[in-house]
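Run Glutamine--fructose-6-phosphate aminotransferase [isomerizing] through structure prediction, thanks.
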Amino acid sequence: EHSGFETFMLKEIHEQPRILRALLEKHVSSEGQVLLPDGLSSDYFRKLNRIMIVSCGTAYHAGMYGKLLMENLTGIAVETDLASEFRYRDPKIDPGTLVIAVSQSGETADTLASIRMAKDWGCRIFSICNVEGSSVVRESDAVFLTECGPEIGVASTKAYTAQQMAFALLTLSIASARGNLSPAELKVYLDDLRDVPDAVHYVIRQKELIQKIGEKHHDGPSSLYLGRRFNYPTALEGALKNKEISYQHAEGYAAGEMKHGPIALINESLPVVCICTQTADEVYEKMLSNIKEVEARNGRIIAVASEGDSELAKLSDDVIYVPAVRDEFSPMVNVAALQLLAYYAARARGTDIDKPRNLAKSVTVE
Ligand code: M6R
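Sure, done. The structure for Glutamine--fructose-6-phosphate aminotransferase [isomerizing] is below.
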């Protein structure tokens, strides 16, 4: 049933390198151009000045990642919101805004309601979706299909990394269409993006080590996940995975917000998962000082670190080393470690991993 894996979720985690590779192959031409989805032209993107991304749950975390990438590389102002909030606010959106909906199922009620509203305002709708023929796809002007195959596990894994890859590809194509990236720069980014599938595979091959760490920390009442910048959404997604399948309370936080509240939670029994792989990124040093603050309060530090970073091993109780990839693309690699960490914590707690209590795969009512 699960092709030799004990659950669908574990199978789907393992499918990620292949899916990411296939997306790269399909969307990058032999001349090294990133192809735009049908219905969206370079000319359109040259004139565009605002993007609004709407989605729920894990797809919202993908949207947060997409926003960070796009605003960084395309020069377009990008906002993101939860579909359930977006639909009840007054976002002052005009027909010149491109609305991007992200959804695995394409049937999420709030996401659908949001795009219907945006259509009424005259906006174009682009969706990143996994199910061809779903409502979101049918109601969009242009679509990027993530083509992961059916995702059966209620906790989303492969759809998430495929959504991130979709944003990475889309960002590179928009940035080159707008002249923000020269052909030579685009080539460098694409070469770096091509490192991602193998890096994810490398993380998955460390599952026995991650299992030990997951089992060691599975029994506490709560855990904290910290990240910054591109890996702030990774922290939120890691905490969500943990909550969903292990029923252990987990909170994702922007590490810089620690002093504004969550630091009060830290004691010797609180596992704090710190995503700190961005050695070239200006936020790496900031992350490091946040980790030192946790250490000073005897928190149990589980670090996700770049290979070769021995500094972090000194500060941490446990380290998951991941291959160093370009900072912008590291969230796809890092989240694989957090998916497995949540997986093995849940397994140790004996929950129904593929069908966690109270959750539906697709939330078709508000
Ligand atoms: O099908 P969608 O991507 O629109 O679903 C959105 C959320 O319901 C979904 O990501 C949910 O949060 C998952 N259970 C997360 O693992």
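Residues 8-27 form the longest helix (20 residues).
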